[in-house]
Amino acid sequence: MLPTTFGNPLWFSDDEVLELKGTTLYRATQLQRKTLQSLFDEKVKRLAEKLLTLDGRPERDVRFEDFLWANSIFWSRALNIPFPRCYVFPTNSEGQDSDISSKIINSGTHTNDCGSLSNRESAKVAEHDALQDKVASAASISQGEIVWVEGLVPGIDFCNHDFKAAATWEVDGTGATTGVPFSMYLLSAGENPSQIEKEISISYGDKGNEELLYLYGFVMNDNPDDYLMVHYPVEAIQNIEFSESKAQLLEAQKAELRCLLPRSLLNRGFFPPSDASGEDKDKCISSQVCNYSWSGQRKMPSYLHKLVFPADFLNALRTVAMKENELYRVSSLLEELVGSGGERQPTDTEVQAAIWEACGDSGALQLLVDLLNMKMLDLEEGSGTEENDTELLEKACTEEIPEDCRGSKTNGGIQNHFLSRNRWSSIIYRRGQKQLTRLFLKEAEHALQLALTEEI
After folding, report:
1. PANTHER family, alphabetically (predicted)?
2. Can you tell me the distance from the alpha carbon of 447 to that of 334, in angstroms, rounded to the nearest whole number?
3. In CATH, what number is assigned to the domain containing residue 443?
């Protein structure tokens, strides 16, 4: 019943990987392949050969493909399972964590070289809040903290993902339902019983296509949870003017040089989609205004309630884009605040307020526009525009047949080109990235024009 191959990019052919060129996933796939190959060559191969010898099968050849299969079997099915700490790290007679159990847990760490693609973000798991209540009894039994551990749960690990999941999985902390403490079971998500012969699906969480394709090997067309990752390369800081001073300011304010931009942010922007929820927009506006710190000397911009970009990321971009006179102005403001003798260190909030006071928004927004333009150029360089991808998808049919057997058919005068499932998934994903880049670029350009007008 287990699959022999997978749809995640680690299993793509070289030509199929090129369909991802220009995306965050392209680089992440290259790094992950290199990491897994190194792990196999340096550790796994020798260990597997020893185990096969002990099992009486020394002639069995250990291949990298076998390791890749086992890796994909686990990570495409693993769930974040909550356990009391004492279950995961048994204590010895002196009350210290067992070294053996610690090593076992640490050895299960999944290497992930793309920060936006972490499969450990339990906050994104749809059932997280419900699970907290379910494991409360377990916490009281163990009188310790809850530790989340990735693991396979037979039965549940065969369930596919769906936005409208037919079931949720829950933890039986006391064993009252299943008879086994801390076991897991499926619970119908609907009011009516599940229909016979209908597939039982669960939700993998609010994941964008980037994460779904990277971890599980599939994408969702028109995914409402899609997101765009934007970052300023850390290595580029050393090549800008006053790099040392700016690096110190970035460190002082705990600046973030990358951010995730969920599609939902557009609901409260300058150009919200027609189906945006008014309730969500009001909630976001109130939250942003209440949490923003102002020094009181620079006038609050009129467009603040429409600005969709995270404040922490804009603070970092203000610092990077800072001009010489603005840098001196920041130093002067901070000196007035903490004293010329440096009696204390300014807080990160004070540093952010001083930088905004000296710089405003135009420099940061101009840099953001440049970053988004560069991202669009990278995305379009190898695969054309968003319209090109849409045209490919409209003409394409997908079939799970060998590449060398795939051709084209003519149906009613329209030529349908067969695509492998991997190519189809790649086009869906990269088209979504181009669409989000275009929409967020439009937001950034409009905000920049308003900022320039108000700063005159």
Report:
1. SET DOMAIN-CONTAINING PROTEIN (PTHR13271:SF55), UNCHARACTERIZED PUTATIVE METHYLTRANSFERASE (PTHR13271)
2. 28
3. 3.90.1420.10
